[in-house]
Write the structure tokens for this entry.
Amino acid sequence: MVSRFRPARRLGLIGLLFASAGCSDWLSYDPGSLRYIEAEAMTQELGPKPNLHGKPKLQAKVRETMARLYGPDPQLIRVPKGAPLMLGGRYLASHLRESEGQAGPDRRIYEGDNLQDPKLRPQLGGYSIYRRNCLHCHGVTGAGDGPTASFFFPRPRDFRRGIFKFTSTPTGARPHRDDLRRTIVKGLDGTSMPAFEPILSPSEIEQVVDYVIFLSLRGETELALIEEASISEEGDNEALGEDIVQEIVSGVFTRWKSAQAQVVNPSVARTPPTRESILRGRDLYLASDCKDCHGRLAKGDGASFVETKISNEIIFGGDPSKMGERVAALPEKVQALWKQKLDEWGNPLRPANLNRGKETTYKGGRRPIDIYWRIAKGINGAQMPGHYPSPFDDRKMWDIVNFVLALPYEPELLTEAPVAPTAGAPAVADARPR
Amino acid sequence: MRYWSILFAMAAVGAVGAFLYAYFSPDWWLPNPPGDFHHSVSRFGREIDKLFFIILAITGAVFVGTQVVLVWAMHRFADETDAQGHPVRKADYFHGSQRLEVIWTIIPAGILVFIALYQMGTWAEIKYRSAAPKVPPLAEVTARQFQWVIRYPGPDGKLNTVDDLVVVDDLHFTRDRMALIYLRSSDVLHSFFLPQLRVKQDAVPGLTIPVWFDADRAGDYELVCAELCGWGHYKMRGKVYVHETEEQLRQWIDEKLAEQNRSRLTMTTAPNGR
């Protein structure tokens, strides 16, 4: 049906071309090839953080190495050997040129359609799908800096550090491929990440998962190269030698590969959500550090965070680019607390409101196993710490999961709870790293 | 310049031709299943299509009539000059015709009143709350930027309880049965649009609006947002699936519930991202 439609569409376009001959500038607008944006650490002075400020020779070396490893721009993608991608990265682009046997790590070259002699692949390629559907928020480099990004709270993920919030792998580990796929397929409830299941085919989703991993690998390698180079003197000709680069790249790849075999699967089956289990979970909630952030009534208003009202005014109370000015206007004490409660990427954080009735949203998913993962291993990059195996053992984990899932429909669990936890409730150590 | 009349005549013929072509092309015709593209799958769809045809017939007849008069007038009274370059006809001025004006006001007004009265039954059946089917709700659909969050009653048959099934962008119901949903919005205006079923209803923040529809053919359809709701409006799509039988729908809900209640992984995942 679509092919029959095309000639008509083309005719229409030609008509439009003639009709708008007066404003041909608008029609012929060409943004040019997309370019990666360099990590801030490449050129900026970042205080104690490793950076290459004022070291142009080393900067050039990092740039040259990055182009050799991953390609100079998104239109020409190179993938080093051994990358944790489907078929070594063949699904990243629509055209492929094999360069097997060449020296160096760039065994294959993937590209758009502007180089000579590329083989057309039977797919759009992750880059193309990403460019159409994801780039406007997540940005060309995957830095979460696309043109629409500033309008969101929470902000779109920056892939370049390989840290992802909603994972099934141990605390701090890279995500499993399934985790990224689940986020793309189902979206993230309560954020602006839409579900792509009705928009993309399963195969397109796999390609885009590959491209997200590619951008992560690229970003992580860039940061590691900068860090490595920052140790060297500007005049050091042997800085970033082939061996070191290889070591850095394989270190980045290994972190992704090892995570694929480390999915956390609860060691005991879920305790049925009986009244007893839910009440035990309630007592655990009140006796542990949960309430410090999530609040006595689990409304996401615990004392460890800046008050919800102030927080809302800062985040939503005007131009997002002027958030810094609004923070600066706060009393000093509140300001200090605010700065402590930022996430790994420097964005404001709020503890989840777990008690919003049926409107309660679980960003990382509402299945018991999703809640288990969030509580057991925490949320990477956010301030939710892991709670398994301490302070919650297998049984306590399920009690608290059962409580969290029951609470929205039974707010009286907390409103009518005794102020002190019931006698006999286990004393739980505070596991939050201070 | 009589040629102008030919150009205008061609434009009119082209417009009529486009409608004639559309009738034989599933790409140009109303959104219907490809095999049988003249048949709307829903009862309301057929009623709305009927109204559409009546209006199309009225406007089509008026269009053809006015075009014929226009082209004839252009042809008949095209400017003509004699050998000296003077117009051969004298232009007359006259100050309106009350009789004509009354006629061309009363006829369209009559047509409008006819359409307004004629569609009332259909409108009432589709939109009046009193006409809502007395069936348990299929689901509650909450629009948010940029998703349709769809909540089906769980095994207890009641909405908004702990055993509900909550899915995103996935609307399922059974054929030949009126489906009733409650439509809400959690942020801005959205519009719940099932093109194949000709159902369109704004989702308004703060309101819970009942919407009902049916389909006489099982299969895949579309749910889209029909109210510009932000940068991701075009991503706000959902899948609609019409099941053959109630058992199949129940089975689908049970499968989804089993996944929603998953507490452990059963499948083993191979290393290396494959």
The beta strands of chain B are 139-144, 147-152, 165-168, 170-174, 179-185, 190-194, 199-203, 209-213, 219-225, 237-243. The helical segments of chain B are 3-23, 43-76, 98-118, 120-127, 246-260.
